[in-house]
Queue: 4 jobs
Job 1
Amino acid sequence: VQLQASGGGLVQPGGSLRLSCAASGSIFSINRMGWYRQAPGKQRELVAVIISGGSTNYADSVKGRFTISRDNAKNTAYLQMNSLKPEDTAVYYCNLRQLANDVWGQGTQVTVSS
């Protein structure tokens, strides 16, 4: 299984970005996809996850600003990030969990700065 993430970049505070994560390989119909992030000097933290049935979970810090979605036919998850803040600056990692195994994509840098 491989994950290909895209969509990071530099944005001003209050701006928006959309991250994508495409999974390929042996993907089971029941799985969880999501995003974690790691800022310099901090531990990796959960941002948002979505299971194949559509249920979602968000970190409190992003609720109301970020929206996770997925296209099961494409095995792709999306993270729409609005009202970005400087504290959202981090490397964002895509994650796929199936059968209790975790697969990680390469990180994509998100920088929120004026």
Note: The two ends are 37 Å apart (CA to CA).
Job 2
Amino acid sequence: QVQLVESGGGLVQPGGSLRLSCAASGSIFWVYDMGWYRQAPGKQRELVARITVGGATNYGDSVKGRFTISRDNAKNMLYLQMNSLKPEDTAVYYCNDVGMRLKWGPGTQVTVSS
């Protein structure tokens, strides 16, 4: 069973940057197409970025051009570089496979505010 732990969130001013990390335990991480999800208060969890096993990426319209997803299969790590952050990016961010079949981690809070 793959376990996921997200980190790297925090409080940042609009226009700032953060880099989120997702550590996955278990040796089969590399078989999954992975994604970063976020959930803002009162809203449903949404997929904002995804990456295939081979490294192909896809982004939601709201983050396209500002966020970059990457992975290191050898280290069982998933990353999300977030630039030009906006207040509407405030949410708890989670990683999971694109089918949401893995157990959810605790998430990491990102707050964008002046």
Note: The radius of gyration is 13 Å.
Job 3
Amino acid sequence: VQLQASGGGLVQAGGSLRLSCATSANRLSINRMGWYRQAPGKQRELVATITSGGITNYADSVKGRFTISRDNAKIAVYLQMNSLKPEDIAVYYCNVRLRSGIHYWGQGTQVTVSS
């Protein structure tokens, strides 16, 4: 299973970015897709997930600012990030969890927010 993430970059505080992630996983085998991030010197943390049924979950720190969505036809997941803050600086990783319980990770995309 492969994941290809894109959309990171440099933005000013208060700005927006949209991350995209496409996967080669079989759509019917996917239980959940999501985004995680890892800031320098910190552990990887959950940002947002979305189940095959469309149920979403967000970290408290991004609620109201980030929106996760998925395109089942394209087998892709997106993260719309608004009102970005310097504390959002991290490498963002796309994740796919299959119904078997196996996880797969994308290569990571850097998000940098200038204050």
Note: The first strand starts at residue 3 and ends at 6.
Job 4
Amino acid sequence: QVQLVESGGGLVQAGGSLRLSCAASGRIISSYNMGWFRQAPGKEREFVARIRWSGGSTDYGDSVKGRFTISRDNAKNTVYLQMNSLKPEDTAVYYCNAQQSVINYWGQGTQVTVSS
């Protein structure tokens, strides 16, 4: 089992920045692909970013490319999402994900609200 706890959400003005953290416990996450997803009210959960366990390559959703950066610190068992140039449409609950083969673990989510 992997337990994931997100933090760092909050209220920010458009154009501002936030850094989300996802602390993992239970197992070492160095062999897991780690990702961030988000869900706005009335919408489906959306892929935001992923960092692979092997090589550390990254992928981003089209709506956040060039503004968000995902990183991981395996020594701290933590994944980060640096969010810059935030827009009101980035408002959502952000969820951390750990994936290995068909196994997925999710955190409880952290709210990000961007005011215009």
Note: The chain is about 0% helix and 55% strand.
